[in-house]
Request: fold
Amino acid sequence: MKLKKLTALIEHQLPLDWQESYDNSGLLLGNNDQEIKKVLCALDCTLAVVQEAINGKFDLIICHHPLIFKPIPNLVTSNYSTPLLKLIKADIALYAAHTNLDNALGGINSMVSEKLGLSNAKILIPTKNNLSKLVTFVPESHLEKVKSSLANAGAGQIGEYSECSFFHKGTGSFLSGAKANPFLGEAGKKTKIDEFKLEMIFANEKIKSIMIALKNSHPYQEPAYDIFNLANHNHQVGSGIIGELPCPISKNEFLAMVKDKLSLEVIKYSSTFANTNNIKKVGLVLGAGSFAIKAAQQEQAQAFITSEVKHHEFLGAPDNLLLCDIGHYESESIATQFFKKFLATLPTNLKIDITKQEKNPTNYFY
Ligand SMILES: [Zn+2]
Reply:
């Protein structure tokens, strides 16, 4: 499969529009016309992973953390550039799915939430400014056709509901030019027609396919339409997960359960948590997620799991929220399993392997 076809399939499920503004997800290195047969999945594109890819004759490495993140001043042999130089020489492409994966419902946050047995799981901080509304004007004869082709292109999706629309009958009017070829009325004449005003919501990353669907299904030479940006939250996309344990448990039971289910060596946790409190509602943000402590509190979580928690964040942790730092690597190493499963769902014949060269860059001394 050509690299550009594979990246299009990946980005159909994990749109680059979902990534945070500071991020650099997507194709980092490669030739779009390159043939891809073997893919290696990793959390980080380290030198050891690159060497494994070279030895195993892989064509692509897919990783979570983008190796190219900050501007690169030069490409000379150094700790940072050596993996890139080796990849270029070996003709191996590099792709990163970072915060677009973090923000995906069903992504790595969801995987960990399932491991912990959380139910009623939903996005902790839903994305804003990701939804738009299409309003178009359609004759009755084509209302169903336009509606269903917009729905097929992804419009009208609200949570568990699909094909959501609103339509209302009204009167449209126009004066067609002498050279026009109007579907209704005559060229060069004023025309009044019965039309339906059709409204459907859509996620911004779908705009291209929505516009193609509108143009292909609408009978008019010049379909009239408006697109409005919405201030609504998109509950299908965003940071972290919040969910509930089957029954309330004590702090110690909770810590032991997390340690066991996520195979952790150690958990750092806030000492401010009142021992009398039980834990039922749990928020989590894999990777560095201190930015979501407040959101977890607002959602009335009793525990919040993340990594890279700073001293002052522990110091300021509320007594009704158990703040847990499980380590950056430990929280996100599940990404390799996600990539393998995810790539296997795409219509490809790829051979997909998880790296055997990955290791925690942090050690613990007991
Ligand atoms: Zn990370």
